[in-house]
Amino acid sequence: MIRFRPVLLLLAFVCSLSFFAHAQVNTKEKIAREMEYSIKRELLNKWYPEAIDRQHGGFLSTFTYNFKPTGQQDKMIVTQARHTWANAKAAVLYPELVHYKEGANHGFKFLRDVMWDQEYGGFYTLVDRQGKPKGSGGEQKTAYGNSFGIYALTAHYIATGDTSALSLAKKTFYWLETYSHDPAHRGYFQHLERNGEVIKRTGNIPSTSDIGYKDHNSSIHLLEAFTDLYQVWPDSLLRLRLKEMLVLVRDTITTKDGYMQLFFEPDWTPLTFRDSTEAAILKHRYLDHVSFGHDVETAYLMLEASHALGLKDDHKTMAVAKKMVDHALKKGWDEQLGGFYDEGYYFKDKPGLTIIKDGKNWWSQAEGLNSLLLMAEHFPEDEMDYFGKFQQLWDYCQNYLIDHVYGDWYQGGLDKEPEQKTALKGQIWKANYHQLRALINCVQRLQPDTTAPSAPARLSAATRNDMVVLSWLKARDNKKLLGYNIYQNEEKIGFTSLTSFTVKSAKSGNKNKYRVTAVDYQGNESGTDRVLTF
Q: Which terminus of the chain, N or C, has less C-beta within 10 A?
């Protein structure tokens, strides 16, 4: 019997691996079910349709811990755009609940008719409940706010096929190109007057103010907005700006150590107070600290941008993204309960990094779930144990962040901030964007789908006012069909969720070849039923 021992040991080892793999599959399925339940029963249904302001348009922003409207209900472009985005995403995921599509339409109209400046263009920053800009500050524009305008309009177009939403998204992109983009030093100026004039920093601006600086946050969300817009509008200038922002965020804003510098002079000289006293550093902490939540969020956003650009084997972006997540885990992770701390700082006279704010805000944990699972997918055997950290973070969210009684997430983890249990559940800086996006993405990764939709059949073409109108039959998918990619001469020229598409710039002088493919929610793309020459 002794001679069979190595075989038995090998068999035991193989069985243990099989058991481990099976257990992890079961764990993934369990977490996916929990997250899907949380999306439907502890998040979306708490906000909508109750948050829709049927009297003045847009969405109510401020709610008590038990979801009662409260306060003046001012409306900020970021929150209004995020609510519109959320309804559009929900309309695609849960089409049987018609109030999500109605909410997306409702939000789009408010963005178009109220938040958009009809005289100077661009989105106002802040209006009152009735839709009147709140003073000169409310009339001012930001690149950050306009990025979320693009983000919401793109989501609305994907959900509804409404080309007027796509047209306004394009209009916003060109407005930013005209007024906010910096052709000399790259990137975008954050603060703009109502007429688009860049607000420059002067001596009378408080040292703690961010006015006049370029910054990480508007940059990463322009990257996010351009990524989504490019997937439905593959424009050459948009591609140029998307790639510009990816390289800028990856190579300039992110430091060699794997965390982002937060603010910069217009020429991208980093703003740092590291040579100041500790008191001065803490006074200016908003402008200069390590934000672990933004770092793990940006890792995901960079990889999404690289994928949208079609950059094959983009090892550099992957390496930087991994380094950002690793740095956050090594320096800003609570080893006992899990979760990412709010802020850290590298003091000049202290070893390593010091945690200067040990709360665990809701959005950082949401972004952490998303990026940890993404890293686990790419690096399943890595020593950082991304999937184990993902499990621990989900347990933390379940125990300390998600309100299982009244719904949504507390603003901060109750282990560090028990007072958040009765704090506002919603306000102009807190809707459901971070947690909804993270949970949707995680459910997708936990329940992967690699089956492509059927090819759209019976492609036909007709001319209308010197334009080519393509039509086809609806495709089928085993899970969730998203829409259709349209190609002209093997170059992608657009996307629609409808079964027709108008080519407004058909190349003249010779016949063009058209084909249409179907794409599902997880990005699987069908083949082509036929190629049409027209």
A: N
**Planar angle of CA 283, 433, 447, nearest 5 degrees:** 125
In tens, the pLDDT along 305-364 reads 999 999 999 999 999 999 999 999 999 999 999 999 999 999 999 999 999 999 999 999
Contact 449, 478 (CB under 8 A): yes
Residue 454, CA atoms < 13 Å, CB-side half-sphere = 10
> pLDDT tens digits for 188-214?
999 999 999 999 999 999 999 999 999
Q: Which residues of 486-501 are buried (b: 16+ CB within 10 A; e: fewer)?
A: bbbeeeebbbbbebeb
DSSP 112-169: IIIIB-TTT-SB-SEE-TTS-B-HHHHH-EEHHHHHHHHHHHHHHHHHH--HHHHHHH
Per-position b or e across 343-377, b if 16+ CB within 10 A of its CB: bbbbeeeeeebebbbebbbbbbbbbbbbbbbbbbe
DSSP 3-state of 2: helix
Rounded-to-integer distance, Cα 468 and Cα 60, Å = 42
Query: CA 413 to CA 398: how far, in whole Å?
Result: 10
Helix axes of 433-446 and 362-378: crossing angle, nearest 10 degrees? 20
Looking at residue 1, its pLDDT comes to 42
Which amino acid belongs to residue 337?
A: L
Classify each residue of 204-234 as buried b or exposed e, where b means 16 or more C-beta atoms within 10 Å of its C-beta. eeeeeebebbbbbbbbbbbbbbbbbbbbbbb
Amino acid 348 reads K
Instruction: Give the Cα separation of 150 and 463 in Å (integer).
Output: 30
| Alpha carbon distance 340, 332 (integer Å) | 6
Contact 25, 380 (CB under 8 A): no
| CA proximity to 260, closest of 284, 300, 296, 209 | 296
- Contact by Cβ (8 Å): 114, 127: yes
pLDDT for the residue 510 = 74
Residue 96 predicted with pLDDT over 80: yes
Residue 217 Cα distances to 142, 188, 205, angstroms: 11, 11, 20
Whole-number CA gyration radius for the chain: 24
Please give the backbone phi and psi of residue 82, each rounded to the nearest 5 degrees, phi first: -65, -40
**Sheet of 467-471, strands arranged across:** 460-464, 467-471, 500-503
